[in-house]
Every structure is written in structure tokens, then in C-alpha cells.
Prior knowledge:
disordered C terminus; 9 helices
Amino acid sequence: MTVAPLVVYAGFYLFLVFFAICLATGLYYVAEIVEEYTRLTRKVINYTIKVVIGIHLLLLVWDRLPILCIAFGVGAHVFYYRMLKTFPYITLTSVDFIGSACLLVISHLVWFQFFLRDPRCAYVSVEWMLGFMLIMLWIVPFAFFISLAANESVLPGAGGPYPYQGYSRLDAESSSSGSNAHSHSSGGGRRTRSTFLNFFNFVRKKKDVLLPQVTSRLPSQYLGQGSNSKAY
């Protein structure tokens, strides 16, 4: 067979393209929801962290999994919980972010060692391992990653009792003199998008730029016919 393998390869690559488009569209939609409902997103992440910590404890007590894996996993989620104090603002140089990133890497290493060396995991499939790590390691960091869309689009003090960076009582006392500048910066912040949103806005702007260029290269007679047809 010569044609059938070509059809299979073409279908496989088309599947990858469609999957990437669907994934990007889904992430864009979720980022818009997070930007619109920041407080609800904070509550969802809060409950998710508590549930995952509870699952760690169940794995320790019920399944007798290694305490080292459980300790690093719980420690990482404790840092995630501390990061909620400034949510949706995330400072990459803060102790909480650096600690959570380090513990996340260590958690991957210890869990991989467990899956490779423990006799109970001798017949564990790749799908089983990915499903386990999705809940135990990836779901909360992925939620924070999606929440970066709302990092610059939320007004100071709108996410909870903890004061956000860049806004203090001194700013509130001087708000009468700088209210116009503050409103301008807030409006600019609400128009800012994350990496996903900027990508789609870039594509949209490119479409608006390319269409006039294409129409300008068309012969004038076609443009004249189009204008006459519109006139009629």
C-alpha cells in the first residue's frame, strides 16, 4: 500500500493542527472568564489547593505512598496557598513563587523515581501516570498560569483584604490630585491581555492590515464594479 499511509499521515497531522487550534481557543476563552470573574477564580483555586492537599494525606494514610513525595507535594501547595494573598498579582521574585517553583521541580523528580522503582507501579501505564500527575502536580500551577490574564486587568484592592503592590494608603490620600492619571492607567490595564490574548489580537490586527493591501492591488475596474453594485 502506498496511498493509504499517506492518507494516515495527513490525517494525523491535521488532527494535531485541529487539536492545537481547539486548545488555543479553549485557553483564550478560559482566560477571558478568569479576567471577568477574578474573585470566583481565587475561590476555585483556594478550594482546589485544599482538595489536593487532602488527597496527599489520603495517599499517605490509605495507600502508604512515600512520605517524601507527600511532603514535597504538600509543601508546594502551601506556597500556592500563600500566593493567593496577592492574587491575581504574581511576583516572580517573591519567596512564595520561587519556593513553589523549586518544590514543583523536586516533586516531579521524586514522583518519577517512585513510579520507576516502586514494585507496585511496575505495570502502571503512561496514561495512568499522566492522570495522576495532572491532579497532584499540574492542576494548580495551570490555574495560576491561566490567571495571568487578570494580572494587570484588576483594580487595586479588588481581590481581597491583602493590599496589592503599587497601591497603598498614601496613594489613596493623594488620589484627589492624581485621579485622572489613575483612571487612565486603570483603563490601560484593563485593555492589557496575557500572551494568549495578545496573540489573537495580533492576528485580528493583521487581518485588518492585510485586507486593504490586497484590495489596493486589485484592478480599478473591479473596484469600480464593486462600488457601482453597492450603489445599486
